[in-house]
Request: fold
Amino acid sequence: MIRSAEEFIALRYSDDLDEQRRASVESASLEVWTEVIERYPDARVWVAHNKTVPLEILRVLASDPDSAVRHTVSMKRKLTPDILEGLAADSHESVRLQVARHRRTPRSVLERLLADDWSEVRDLARGRIENDDRSATSD
Reply:
């Protein structure tokens, strides 16, 4: 377990690949994640990469000013419909595209993405909806 913000930073920016891996897979308390986010803004994307980061932290990072952080959040498997809904309105197309790809994106959000500015997002959302419709009628 990662016990402090300083430990996370030391692990993440270490030259040792085993230590970098620990930063990606070991858990930390909400307090530690919050401290990393507040004190080390450049490390937010690495917090989002962590396999154990809790939903409370992902909710915070989903509205981060850095689109790379939001994009990393949008790729997390454990996202809830409310987080995906917020990310579907993101200003950056790569985030919206990832929401259209996400297996947990609710149909209502996919339907909203049919009106997206970027054709790739629209096409992917349309394909997902059509696939769901075909699956439903073949049962």
The CA atoms of residues 4 and 31 lie 9 Å apart. The two ends are 45 Å apart (CA to CA). Residues 1-61 form one domain. DSSP finds ten helices and no strands in the chain.
